Amino acid sequence: xxxxxxxxxIKDLNIAKREEDIGFYAGFVGASYMLGRALLSIFWxxxxxxxxxxxxxxxxxxTVVLFNTLFGLNLSYWMAISTRxxxxxxxxxxxxxxxxxxxxxxxEHQALGLSTVTTAWGVGLIIGPxxxxxxxxxxxxxxxxxxxxxxxxxxxxxxxCFSISALAFVVLMISFWFPETxxxxxKKDASNSDSFESVETTTFPTVTDENKINSKKSLLKNWPxxxxxxxxxxxxxxxxAYSEIFSLWTVSPKKFGxxxxxxxxxxxxxxxxxxxxxxxxxxxxxxxxxxxxxxMVSRIGGILSVPLLASYPFLAALSGVAxxxxxxxxxxxxxxxxxxxxxxxxxxQNRAVGQEQRGAANGIAMTTMSLAKAVxxxxxxxx
Length: 383
Hints:
Layout: H1 3-13, H2 22-51, H3 53-71, H4 77-89, H5 93-103, H6 110-135, H7 138-141, H8 151-154, H9 158-175, H10 195-203, H11 209-213, H12 215-220, H13 223-251, H14 263-310, H15 312-315, H16 320-351, H17 355-382
């Protein structure tokens, strides 16, 4: 469910005394998920390195089904924060999926494998806003189907949450037939090694007991990995703040500098930008990645994002077709650039490590990125 849906949910919970404070409280709901993910991402990465990618993916999908459904049933602000926090704690699937996408493809197609992960994000940006925008508050939008005294009238945010949970359940069932990729091309003794210890084994032909004890330090000294993670965290902080501000800005009244859009209109904008993200990933990134490499893709994408974001405040002065056209164009370009940058940085992170350490490396990346994303909604909502 997109950010603006739980912004509406915070409004209905009457926790905010003023309309301007809704973003402040909604920011903590978004941050609670990222905080939970930050706490346990390294743990899930080590589990993926030791027991396989598939079990972590299955556990992550199962918790999406459970806690996303519960989120649609919350009746208080603290229940909303709790369900999002627990969902974050058990969301280790993305850590394993990034490693999985790298390993299931041959080396020459690894970039394509990782781009499919971010392409799936683009698909989610189409499905999510559509489901959220059209299914939220069904008793008000479709009174002939859902009455205000019905279950969906009492829980106006359950239908979009349940719809996403149902989709996650279908994927969960399919995931049981996924092949396991861990240690597919590695020696047998690597299968029982700790993820941080295997970093030492991969980096140095001879490993002493002292080196094994200090293996965590050596992983953090992997400069190609850590530099890409640092850049990734900074970008995620910016991107999460943008998502929070964009959601609030579009639905805010004109007197506060917003666009006064409805949830359906915002869902339409996000869905159109999602289509652009899919096109950029399937057609543009494979070509750019081979032509200039992931480092230059991330640099150019970051540079182009600056003037694009600076143009957003001027859109509030427009109306009608001009506003619709330019807003959709700007949102499409912004999300396409974001996806290109993320894909390039994720590729750099996974190329910086071997298979035995890939889960732990993605766990570290996910932890630091989640901390940045936890700050992003709170900072963006407060601003």
